[in-house]
Amino acid sequence: MNWKILVVGPHAEILETVVRLLNQIPGWQARGVADAISALEQISALRYDLVLLSSGLDPQAEQSIRKAASVLVPAVPVVQHYGGGSGLLVGEVRAALEQGQVLL
């Protein structure tokens, strides 16, 4: 099963790194966007299994993403990633996918 993950974060280097790390996991397809408007466009247009919020988003942007996702795709988990090593990142994503019942 392929899991599609939308990563949202304003810091280009961090966003690029998170997307690269997630794309190294077989079966995971991550895409990154820098702001809430782009995230909302992606959530509306494409099917994602998880929305991962990276550090640096302002509270209003985070809230608008969470609210829109809860209306548009209520079964899709929206998770905050605070940083840490790649093992922590992968663990957070796996746990969120399991809680969202994406794993079969």
Description:
The chain has helices at residues 12-23, 36-45, 59-72, 86-99; strands at 3-8, 28-33, 50-53, 78-80. With 104 residues, it is an alpha/beta fold. It has a single domain (3-99), classed as 3-Layer(aba) Sandwich (Rossmann fold), CATH 3.40.50. Strands 2-1-3-4 form a 4-stranded parallel beta sheet, with helices on both faces. Strand 1 (3-8), helix 1 and strand 2 form a beta-alpha-beta unit.
Short description:
The protein has 104 residues and is of the alpha/beta class.
Helix content: 40-55%
Radius of gyration: 12 Å
Instruction: Give the topology string: H per helix, E per strand.
Output: EHEHEHEH
* Class of secondary structure makeup: alpha/beta
Q: Could you name the ranges where pLDDT drops below 50 across 5 or more consecutive residues?
A: none
Shape: globular
CATH H-level homologous superfamily name: Response regulator
Second rung of CATH, namely the architecture? 3-Layer(aba) Sandwich
Compile the SSE list and pairings.
Layout: E1 3-8, H1 12-23, E2 28-33, H2 36-45, E3 50-53, H3 59-72, E4 78-80, H4 86-99
Parallel strand pairs: 1-2, 1-3, 3-4
What key phrases describe this protein's structure?
104 residues, alpha/beta, Rossmann fold
